[in-house]
């Protein structure tokens, strides 16, 4: 496991957000919940301070910092998806109560940015035939949720 783990800042909803994430992303679990040992900016004595968790094998930490903070697209979490069923599952789950955006991006209900990307996209965009790759890029730019069949159709010239 990596020594580096992203920390997500929440005002008071860290445990709620983590439960949401682990219910949607396969190979995910809560490792540990640390409670406040006294009153702190993150909450009262005994309330949740930190949640250590794993999403798809990657360690994360969620912190109740007490003060709302805004997330930006400067940091997002990309999930590689093997097929359209996985794209659909993660897209539908993570976007519920959030906001969908262009090119496979979404913001979840907590404002965290995600990229739900079919693994085949890298292959299609990296094709040495620039015309094929450019058609894929144009198709992707016109999509919100990425559609593998549509990307492959553009690649094939359709």
UniProtKB/TrEMBL annotation:
Pfam families: 3-dmu-9_3-mt (PF06983)
Ranges for domain PhnB-like: 3-117
InterPro entries: 3_dmu_93_MTrfase (IPR009725), Glyas_Bleomycin-R_OHBP_Dase (IPR029068), PhnB-like (IPR028973)
PANTHER family: PHNB-LIKE DOMAIN-CONTAINING PROTEIN (PTHR33990:SF2), PROTEIN YJDN-RELATED (PTHR33990)
Name of this chain's protein: VOC family protein
Species this chain originates from: Phreatobacter stygius
């Amino acid at each position: 496991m990596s020594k580096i783990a992203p920390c997500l800042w929440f005002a008071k909803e860290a445990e709620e957000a983590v439960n949401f994430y682990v219910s949607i992303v396969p190979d995910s679990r809560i490792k540990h919940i640390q409670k406040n040992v006294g009153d702190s900016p993150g909450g009262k004595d005994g309330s949740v301070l930190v949640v250590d968790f794993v999403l798809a094998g990657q360690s994360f930490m969620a912190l109740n910092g007490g003060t709302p903070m805004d997330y930006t697209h400067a940091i997002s979490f990309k999930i590689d998806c093997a097929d359209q069923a996985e794209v659909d599952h993660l897209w539908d789950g993570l976007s519920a109560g959030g906001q969908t955006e262009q090119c496979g991006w979404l913001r979840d209900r907590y404002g965290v940015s995600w990229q739900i990307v079919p693994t085949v996209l890298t292959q299609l965009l990296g094709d040495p035939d620039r015309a094929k790759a450019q058609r894929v890029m144009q198709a992707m730019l016109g999509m919100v949720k990425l559609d593998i069949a549509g990307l492959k159709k553009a690649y094939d010239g359709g």
